């Protein structure tokens, strides 16, 4: 079976998360909003009394070395709540910035807030993306009926994570999960995540890929 994963928003927790992924030789894609990063790390918002900080531009290449990068718009607006031309700029400028910054083609996209409609979806396609991830869950999730509506199997913290995993394994299909590393808030959660990636990587039936590999 193929396993793919992606992570949104470019926060500082991505640094220890990528360390875990490298340790277990797991592939992943990170969905970024270039305009929300400064040269240095900066405070972004708080969640459950926990401060969320954005990675600095100066460290993005080292943190994400060896991983794939996808667009998540320039500033993370609600796609369906802005003018189409503004949305097109958000998508096209994001793709160009990331390609210039990292030096390779950016083929994927993740909708901010998981929000899209026929107009915003087609703009993402017209800007040259191979696929776009939603926040909806579907089993099987691959192949998608429309590559601009690529649903995942589940969120990484889903209670059904291993049930979904085993279901896909029986069909030798594609298992796709996603999340935000800022949702890992405690040492116990970090250990659980490490154990999860280790278990997947040690499964001899698993081949890690990134979403762009599928299209």
Compact summary:
The chain has helices spanning 14-23, 57-63, 84-102, 118-126, 161-171, 187-202; strands at residues 2-8, 29-32, 42-47, 50-54, 68-71, 108-110, 131-137, 150-152, 154-155, 174-179, 207-208. The chain has 215 residues and is α/β, with parallel strands linked by helices. It has one domain (2-214): Glycoside hydrolase/deacetylase (TIM Barrel), CATH 3.20.20.370.
Features:
single chain, alpha/beta, six-stranded parallel sheet, three-stranded parallel sheet, 6 helices
Total helical elements: 6
- Poorly predicted runs are none
What does the radius of gyration come to?
A: 16 Å
The CATH topology corresponds to TIM Barrel
Percent in strands: 15-25%
Order of helices and strands: EHEEEHEHEHEEEHEHE
Let me know the largest β-sheet. Answer: 6 strands, parallel
The CATH class, by name, is Alpha Beta
Structural class: alpha/beta
Shape: globular
Number of strands: 11
């Amino acid at each position: 079976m193929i396993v793919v994963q992606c992570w949104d928003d470019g926060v500082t927790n991505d640094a220890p998360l990528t360390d875990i992924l490298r340790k277990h030789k797991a592939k992943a894609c990170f969905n970024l909003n270039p305009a929300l990063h400064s040269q240095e790390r900066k405070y972004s918002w708080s969640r459950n009394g926990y401060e969320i900080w954005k990675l600095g531009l100066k460290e993005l290449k080292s943190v994400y070395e060896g991983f794939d990068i996808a667009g998540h718009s320039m500033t993370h607006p609600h796609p369906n709540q802005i003018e189409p031309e503004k949305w097109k700029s958000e998508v096209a400028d994001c793709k160009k910035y990331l390609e210039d910054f990292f030096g390779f083609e950016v083929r994927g996209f993740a909708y901010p807030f998981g929000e899209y409609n026929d107009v915003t979806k087609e703009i993402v396609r017209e800007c040259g993306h191979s696929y776009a991830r939603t926040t909806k869950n579907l089993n099987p999730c691959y192949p998608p009926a429309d590559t601009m509506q690529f649903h995942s199997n589940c969120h990484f913290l889903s209670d059904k994570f291993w049930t979904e995993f085993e279901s896909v394994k029986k069909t030798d299909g594609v298992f796709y999960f996603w999340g935000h590393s800022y949702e890992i808030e405690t040492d116990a959660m970090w250990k659980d995540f490490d154990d999860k990636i280790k278990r997947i990587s040690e499964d001899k039936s698993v081949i890690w890929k990134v979403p762009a590999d599928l299209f």
